[in-house]
Amino acid sequence: MSESPAVFDVSTTPEVLKKQPFLYYFRQHKRTFVVGLVCLLLTNILDALPPLLIGMAIDQISGSEGFDKMGKTLGILVLVTVLLSLFRYMWRIFWGQFHHSVAADLRIRIFNRYTDLGPDFYSTNSVGQLMSLINNDVNSFRMAIGPGILILMDALFIICIVPPLMISISPSWTWKTLILIPLIPFVIRKLMSAIRNSYKNQQDKFGEMSGISQEIVAGIRVIKSYAQELNQTRLFNSYNKRYEDACNQVAKVDSLWSPIMELGVTTGSVILLFVGAPEVMSGAVTVGSFFAFYQYIQRMIWPMTAIGLGVNFIQKGRASFDRIVNLLDKEHNVPDTGTLSVDRFDSLEVKDLTFTYPNEDKPTLSNISFTLNRGETLGLVGPIGSGKSTIIELLCRQYPVEPGKIWLNGTSIENYKKSDLMNLFSVVPQDAFLFSKKVSENIAFGMDEWNMEDIYQITKAVNMNKEIQEIPGGYEAYLGEKGVNLSGGQKQRLTLARALIRKSEVVILDDSLSAVDAHTEKQILNQLKGQLSQNGEQKKTTAVIISHRLASLRWADKILVLKDGVVEAFDHHNQLLNNSPTYKNLFHLQTEV
Amino acid sequence: MTQEYIKKESTVRTMTLKAILVRMWPFLSSHLIQVVFVVGIVLLFVVVGRALPLLFGYAIDEGIKKQQAEVIFYVAMAYLTFEVTRAILAFGQSYLMQRLGNRTLYDLRETLIHHVQHLSNNFFDKTPVGRTVTRITNDMAALGELFAQGFTAIFVNSLEIVSIFIALCFISVRLTFLTVVVAPVIIWMSLKISRSLREVSQAAKKVLSSINSFTAENLNGMKILQLFNRTDSSRKHFQELSFKYRHLQLLTVKKFALLWPLLEGFSVATVATALFFGGYFRETLDLTVGELSAFVLLLQSFFRPFRVILERYSQMQNSLASADRVFAMLDEAKEENTKGRLRSPVQGLVTYENLSFRYSKDNPYILKGIHLEIQPGESVALVGRTGSGKSSMIKLLQKMYPLEEGKIFIDGQPINEIENGHLRSHIGVVQQENFIFKGSVASNIRLDNPDISDEQVQQAAKLTGCLDILERRRGGLNAKVEENGSNLSVGERQLIAFARVLAFNPDIFVLDEATANIDSESELKIQQATEVITKNRTSIIIAHRLSTIKNCDRIVIMSHGEIIEIGSHNELLKKGGYYADLYHSQFEHLKNNFEDQKTRVAEAEAPQGSV
Q1: Would you list the DSSP string of A8-31?
Q2: B567: closest CA among B552, B582, B581?
Q3: Would the pTM of this model clear 0.80, i.e. be above it?
Q4: Does B81 touch chain A (CB under 8 A)?
Q5: Cα–Cα distance measured from residue A544 to residue B512, given in angstroms and rounded to the nearest whole number
Q6: Domains of chain A: which residue ranges?
Q7: What architecture is the B350-583 domain classified under in CATH?
Q8: What is the mean pLDDT of chain B?
Q9: How far is A367 from chain B (nearest CA, A)?
Q10: B514 to chain A nearest CA, in Å?
């Protein structure tokens, strides 16, 4: 409605929201909510009139009364309809505004919370689950607070308005025809749960079928190589069939819905024919009233259905909201309590560091100690699972470390502001993750301001400039699903550029050149080495490099050899060949072209 | 601003309903009897539905007005019977129609997966896996929705409209025309509204999907986001997207809110008209009260089907785009194929004759005039930098790309005359990164091929030496394998690929040796497996390690798509060219530590080597 929507303050989650979400949002949108409700009530009142008016008109036609009266009745009918349309239009607008605003508010709160959470959260929650929370759960809460509450109010209003009108025509008809109607909500709830179960089953089967499709398409080269297309189609069809069966099950339950509803009306109508006809024949009740009553019976079906549906919406919405609150209550596993600022790296000292991941028994790192001074390059080496990346994670405050284990510039690391540390370190993680943005935007991802000159320079340093120019669109080309697909090595070099362009005090490479061939890696590291020494005393860059290719670490000032989470040696390349069996072994294994 | 945005976002190429029906018809027509049966049930359902108000009118005229109690009784019984019949038919038509749709979709999915597997490699190179999977799953599901919610609803409700119109005319033709004369105007107006509603809701869906992809990407890259201090700007962007979405949702609500009252208002207006004319001209029209009541009841049900059609029609638009994508995929050209077969038994003589290759006309040549003959049973090492064309030699041998310049022969038969599947089944390839399917180790070795027995799987695993490593570490061949083999190490994955090759027992073996990240135990097993497989089999090995290279009968040095040196280890060393340089510069230290390597092998062969 409004072009510039109000900005929500979502930095904190109010207690009322957590405990009484409905109440909280009703208060937040008091005016919209109340006006919407009033419009709904007026709609319901007006909506109850047409059967009565039409009945009157029928009587006036068949009766002896003049046509003038009928003309007046019809006039009123038209007026009622105009007003009815107006109010119906209005409640829809107000109500829509209400629940869509609620959804936007919740969605933003959830997203912001996501950006606050750390690796332990992401290791226990799949992206699929988190997407489902911000999509399905928000939507199901919206359905509860919007349509859910709405149809319950609607049902309530109709129940308050229509039966009194029916009683005014004939009290005895009323109870006789409506006696079975209260059963409807129960039937609805039963049917709803059957529908839900069959949908759930359908979704599961769909998921399994997606899984096998994913496997077939991802493994297409193997399938082709071994000419297994027919076998795979057969395999796919077994899932295909199960999904079809599940769909048929859904169709069955789903098709029951409208016949059952209709039978509800029928029973009432048939009863009316039996009990009502004698009274009409005797003249106690007019044909018009009989007609009106017939229509009112039909009107009573919806509120009964609505109760079933509404309660269902609200239950689902509450369950979803519980999951949402559960998320909003989560905190980062390493609270950002530091107050000190830092923008220069002098020294790093790790003293007797032992670390165990949450939910694991054995420590990943045991009694690690080493030092790193400004301008030095540290190599980290060791077999898979020896704890190299863990050291980086702890340095970047991804997991909590006891105070006094990691010292930066002589101060225990948790005393620094996280954002300052993140500016001090530039990390190139193992998996080369890039965003669906332009090549240039990906490189400048960590910069507030940048110009193309910096980008050209840095892509040259990572040996990428020529390749980027060959991509259609060059630096302006989009990456990802809808854009260019880069090779693993190209992605890695871009992530390297993304880190280097920040010119941080410390550069950390976590095995980030594994997909680049040995020759290119050597070239890049040579460039990097050149850059590290060129920067001069003022901007002396420190580097931490994890690599599997020992040849590329030869020039490092110090190399830390890890094995099973323990420091096996901490020395220069030449000495390590003598005093570290792990290093020596790795080195010999890697005599590749 | 919004208007422009909507316009920009809604210009998606879509198929028309008719075009989709034409494409779907072959699939539907194979179930022709069911189609006819379902249509019959729908017709019956509609007819019974119209009889009910007429019966009500009859009850008023013949029963109530004429004071005939037994008529009332019979009418009530008939009413009950009709309603029950109608309920059964309602269930029947909906269920059967959906069943038919589900069967049709099953057939379509089968056709699609079959088709996809025969698409060219060029297609898979340029199309991300996710996109193809979406066609088979989500887009097909959308097509299903189109069928279940769209076509069937439109079909049934159109019949409803026609039947109501006929029933109205049955009571009074003149009154019918007097009352529904304005209907076309209303239908035109609501069509207009529903069209703009469709545009807005499509724009809203677009924004929602960009919210989703933005969120998914940020969740996947959360670590980067935090490490680079970028959470604030993401939050801001997300908030903007959310507000944009809300804004479009509200527009949708607005348009939708207009549609309902319009149709309802019109419905009441027609009723009022009917009563007015019916009242004033009752005598001339010759109408009873019962007939008039039935007329009004019918009129009241006249507009519901319109609304359903309009609603469904606008919902269908997104599915139309999906249908379009599905059929576009079916229109993708399959890879070229022929019928020829290799003469049995296959000897394994591989000949590359003047072979040049580039991936497309715009790309540079990857291979330039390659001549190479590999004798049956010979092992050849291909050595060269990334991009020198080694892998392309293999892909072309497997006919993964069409040959344009030059030829490849197997046993003297040109491969482009051989059927793809047949050819490929004679060539076994172990890659650096081997695709591992979700399932078990055994299912990965036999690739779900029922022709390969458990014994053969066992035997293959044993011969390659991977059986004991897998038994010890993973608990045997039935050990569960996660998606992409993520619970296995690179070395284990390669060992499984070796066993896979051996189980299929090809005549020509190709190995792209892995370069890094392999634990030393697997490394040794891989060396053993290579020896087993290459024995007496034509083998092409893209080799990185000196030991592998040295063991091959011949070494082919490649550079920039050309063969620059060829010969045995000793020949090439003597020649003193590129290979000799490489050998001396890279492997000097190895010479010094040759004794060392021997010890390492001995250690690793002992049950618990110290690494």
Answers
A1: P--SS--HHHHH-HHHHHHHHTHH
A2: B552
A3: no
A4: no
A5: 32
A6: 1-169+307-332, 347-589
A7: 3-Layer(aba) Sandwich (3.40)
A8: 84
A9: 22
A10: 10
Whether cis (ω within 30° of 0) applies to the bond prior to A278 is: no
CB A290 within 8 A of CB A280: yes
Q: What is the DSSP letter of B530?
A: H
Chain B from 335 to 374: CB within 8 A of any A CB: none
- Cβ neighbors of A480 (< 8 A, separation 6 or more) are A434, A435, A436, B217
* Number of other residues whose CB lies within 10 A of the CB of residue A128: 11
CA distance A535 to A505: 11
Q: Which residue has the tokens 């930098």?
A: B385
pLDDT along chain B (611 residues), means of 10: 38 67 88 93 93 88 82 86 90 92 93 94 83 88 83 90 93 88 82 84 87 90 88 92 95 87 83 85 80 89 85 76 88 88 90 90 86 94 83 90 91 93 91 86 89 90 81 81 79 86 91 70 79 89 82 91 92 88 64 44 39 30
CB contact at 8 A, A39 and B253: no
Could you give the 3-state DSSP secondary structure of residue B525?
Answer: helix
Q: Residue A409 contacts by C-beta under 8 Å, 6 or more apart in sequence?
A: A342, A344, A345, A346, A347
Amino acid at B16: T
Fold matches, A1-169+307-332 and A347-589? no
Residue A590: list chain B partners with CB under 8 A: 516
Residue-wise pLDDT tens digits, B346-391: 999 999 999 999 887 777 888 999 999 999 999 999 988 777 888 8
Kindly tell me the number of DSSP H helices and DSSP E strands found in chain A: 24, 10
Cβ-contact B405, B356 below 8 angstroms: yes
Cα B410 to Cα B355: distance, rounded to the nearest angstrom: 14
The complex's ipTM works out to 0.85
Residues of A in contact with B102 (CB under 8 A): 244, 247-248, 251
3-state SS, A242-300, equals HHHHHHHHHHHHHHHHHHHHHHHHHHHHHHHHHHHHHHHHHCCCCHHHHHHHHHHHHHC
Q: Which residues of A touch B225 (CB under 8 A)?
A: 115
Is B98 in CB contact (< 8 Å) with chain A? yes
- A155 pLDDT more than 60: yes
* DSSP label of B418: B
List the strands of the sheet with B508-512, edge to edge: B427-430, B508-512, B538-542, B379-383, B554-559, B562-567
**pLDDT reported for residue B7:** 39
Segment holding B424, helix H or strand E: helix B420-424
Q: Do B307 and B191 meet the contact criterion of CB atoms below 8 Å apart?
A: no
CB proximity list for B234: less than 8 A, separation 6 or greater: A115, B218, B225
> DSSP string spanning B221-236?
THHHHHHTT-HHHHHH
**In B, which residues are within 8 Å of A58 by CB distance?**
275, 289, 292-293, 296
- Give the pLDDT confidence score for residue A348 in this predicted structure: 94
Angle, CA A219 vertex, CA A217 and CA A225 arms, to 5°: 115
Cβ-Cβ contacts under 8 Å, A120 against chain B: none
Q: Is A574 exposed, middle or buried (0-12, 13-18, 19+ CB in 10 A)?
A: exposed
Beta pairing partners, B405: B356
CATH number of B2-331: 1.20.1560.10
Q: Which of A73, A45, A48 is nearest to A60 (CA)?
A: A73
Give the start-to-end residue ranges of the domains of chain B. Answer: 2-331, 350-583
Q: How far is residue A264's CA from residue A268's CA, in Å, rounded to a whole number?
A: 7
Among A116, A273, A290, beta carbon nearest to B75 = A273
Of the segments A277-281, A498-502, B110-114, which one has the largest average pLDDT value? Answer: B110-114
Superfamily of domain A1-169+307-332: ABC transporter type 1, transmembrane domain (1.20.1560.10)
Is 3.20.170.30 the CATH classification of the domain at A347-589?
no
B155 closest CA partner among B42, B232, B70: B42
